[in-house]
Amino acid sequence: MKLSEKIKFIRKNILNLSIEEFASILGVSRRTISSWENKQVLPAISNIISISLISNITIDSIIFDDYPFEIICEDIDKECYMALKTIVKEYEKFRKKLDIFHVAYS
């Protein structure tokens, strides 16, 4: 998964935020978020750090392609950790189905 896809996945599925809400939290414009998600511009490292901090996802797993999401488990309770773990597992299953479809029908 590419950086742009990871940012969009984190925003929508982990943080459950609109582009406007995400932009407000990060202190950037809606257009900036859209440009990241549409592969037009790479976010500054300071923005990647902020995304990591608010999502509890490691920086490595955000920036490296095809690197699975790793959850930072500091300061979250077990219930939150298990919910995040479930989200990641479901996404990985979904992503594998997309890859199979893409290979079979491209």
Question: Outline of this structure?
Answer:
The protein has 106 residues and is mostly helical. The protein is 68% helix and 0% strand.
Q: What global shape is seen?
A: globular
The helix/strand series, from N terminus to C terminus, equals HHHHHH
Structure annotation, total helices: 6
Estimate what percentage of residues fall within beta strands: under 5%
Mean pLDDT: 83
Summarize the amount of helix as a percent range: 55-70%
Largest sheet: none
N-C termini distance? 17 Å
- Number of beta strands: 0
Radius of gyration: 14 Å
Poorly predicted runs are 102-106
Structural class: mainly alpha
Please specify the SSE layout and strand pairing:
Blueprint: H1 3-14, H2 19-26, H3 30-37, H4 45-55, H5 59-63, H6 78-105
Helix pairs in contact: 2-3
Structure description:
With 106 residues, this protein is an all-alpha fold. 68% of the residues lie in helices and 0% in strands. It has six helices and no strands. Helix 2 packs across helix 3 (30-37). The radius of gyration is 14 Å and the shape is globular.
